[in-house]
Specification:
The protein is an alpha/beta fold. The chain is 31% helix and 27% strand. It contains four helices and eight strands.
């Protein structure tokens, strides 16, 4: 497992989550023959992403949100905290935009890191988008089925489960 950072985070919960994620990923991946790269706080096509995860058979864009209460996640409206408040807009749309920015960047630069034949064929729509709730996803949270069905690329997990989610991701596009 390798860890990279584009600089310090703006919010304390993101730094705390970074420490937890590093510890969990080291425990999960250091003893197995898998190559995983975690890039924290990186800009891609003018989008500031909390985390991009690269492994041999999957890519994921992760946005970290802090909430220790149950949430109601929805595709097309603000995410609500069950006992009042919101998660500042719609994290699903946010991570969808990050995912699209990464897809666009990789598509535009594919010839710089892929062989000519592979570059002509490669699509990047298999990239995953994940919202990781810190410190963990409350068990009473609901996602109104946005993490299944037509959005197979989307996951909603707790930071404490992110390493397991990434371990299970795989794409035959590589």
């Amino acid at each position: 497992v390798e860890f990279w950072t584009g600089g310090p985070f703006d919010h304390e919960h993101e730094r705390v989550s970074q420490d937890a994620i590093i510890k969990l990923f080291r425990g999960a991946f250091d003893s197995i023959p898998a190559y995983v790269v975690l890039v924290f706080n990186v800009y891609v096509n003018a989008k500031s992403m909390d985390l991009v995860i690269l492994k041999e058979d999957a890519i994921a864009v992760v946005d970290v949100k802090e909430c220790d209460k149950p949430i109601k996640a929805a595709e097309n409206r603000s995410w609500e905290i069950v006992n009042g408040g919101t998660l500042h807009g719609n994290p699903f749309r946010q991570v969808s935009g990050y995912r699209y920015a990464l897809i666009q960047f990789l598509s535009e630069h594919r010839s710089t890191f892929l062989r000519k034949q592979k570059a002509a064929q490669m699509q990047f729509d298999h990239i995953n988008g994940i919202i990781a709730i810190s410190p963990s996803l409350h068990p009473e949270s609901t996602s109104n089925n946005i993490d299944s069905g037509k959005h197979k690329w989307f996951r909603l997990v707790g930071v404490n489960e992110l390493h397991t989610c990434i371990g299970a991701l795989s794409s035959n596009q590589f």
